[in-house]
Amino acid sequence: MFPRPLTPLAAPNGAEPLGRALRRAPLGRARAGLGGPPLLLPSMLMFAVIVASSGLLLMIERGILADMKPLPLHPPSREGAAWRQALPRPGGLSLEAGDPDLQVRQDVRNRTLRAVCGQPGMPRDPWDLPVGQRRTLLRHILVSDRYRFLYCYVPKVACSNWKRLLKVLAGVLDSVDVRLKMDHRNDLVFLADLRPEEIRYRLQHYFKFLFVRDPLERLLSAYRNKFGEIREYQQRYGAEIVRRYRAGAGPSPAGDDVTFPEFLRYLVDEDPERMNEHWMPVYHLCQPCAVHYDFVGSYERLEADANQVLEWVRAPPHVRFPARQAWYRPASPESLHYHLCSAPRALLQDVLPKYILDFSLFAYPLPNVTREACHQ
């Protein structure tokens, strides 16, 4: 069970508490033709989280949250879930009594989830979402009927390995170590492929999970991969970014030399709901308020969390999550720090609100980009 949120949640001097601010906020589109409750606009959600956090953008400037290490997320059990009665208790997921820092951060994460997702007008299931948001969600949830689980894939959070693993569990591949170019569509089943009643049944009865990553580290990984290696992305996105944001670029840039600040400027001008999936916020991809996930694994402890999931769904003992390849060089904290410190701080403050729900709901610290930190 989630801990009860503070009543009311703390707000900056002169600002309304989160619950009251959300209730007074202008409401977004209602579910067309279904008579459902009105939905809060994402921009209002971002505003509410910023307000409830006592000014997160001010904290960015001061680096207040930068010393907190990412917390692996392990949501509590949901009472009445039939599959959980047969599964072993998640070993090693409880917080040690002697580590108050971890306990505090876990409690903060639970309170934020409870506060944001429990507000009137927030989606309770995918059919509370506008059509476009629901389509994005259902296209990102993969189905294993044999092992009765749903996995919401997030690009740049080891989703290729998870897709390969699903193909092994389905009997399509012999091993997760098969060296083949990954086909991201064939031999996979998505919730979007199913009828509404089939979707509802699986959402109610299957084990549901996703994996998350530090939002800015994920952005840096996407930037390095797509604009440094993938010609299709250079031509489709890179050329347009250079035309928009580089003086004297000319009418036909190659798009293979996009700078990180140019990429951030592009993100500032993009609607999060219409972004490419590789940099779309996790909140919009997986809708953690509309889908009640049973487990949220973290990229920071990917192999351990993934193999724990495989135990819970009773995958064959020989099927294990593939170890990271020796040649793979993920975006390191040092590389991320360098790129963030090289970008204008005002630009970072414009980008971060678009990912503020990912930081808040998944308990990731905001970056420390103070002058002191950047000159260390």
Task: Describe, in plain words, how this protein is organized in 3D.
The protein is α/β, with parallel strands linked by helices and 376 residues long. The chain has one domain. It is built from 17 helices and 6 strands. Strands 3-4-5-6 form a 4-stranded mixed beta sheet. A two-stranded antiparallel sheet has the order 1-2. A hairpin with a 4-residue loop joins strand 3 and strand 4. Helix 1 runs antiparallel to helix 2 and helix 11 packs across helix 15. The protein is globular, with a radius of gyration of 21 Å. The N and C termini lie far apart (42 Å). One of its GO terms (molecular function) is sulfotransferase activity.
Outline type? globular
Tell me the span between the first and last alpha carbons.
42 Å
Q: Find the structural class using helix and strand composition.
A: alpha/beta
The beta-strand count equals: 6
Q: Low-confidence stretches at least 5 residues in length (pLDDT < 50)?
A: 1-44, 46-83, 85-99
Structural domains: how many? 1
> Total helix count?
17
Order of helices and strands: HEEHHHHHEEHHEHHHHEHHHHH
Mean pLDDT over all positions: 77
Major sheet: order of its strands? 3-4-5-6
The helical percent reads 40-55%
Query: Could you tell me the radius of gyration in angstroms?
Result: 21 Å
Strand content: 5-15%
GO biological process, one term: carbohydrate biosynthetic process
Family: Belongs to the sulfotransferase 2 family.
Organism: Neomonachus schauinslandi (Hawaiian monk seal)
InterPro entries: Carb_sulfotrans_8-10, Sulfotransferase
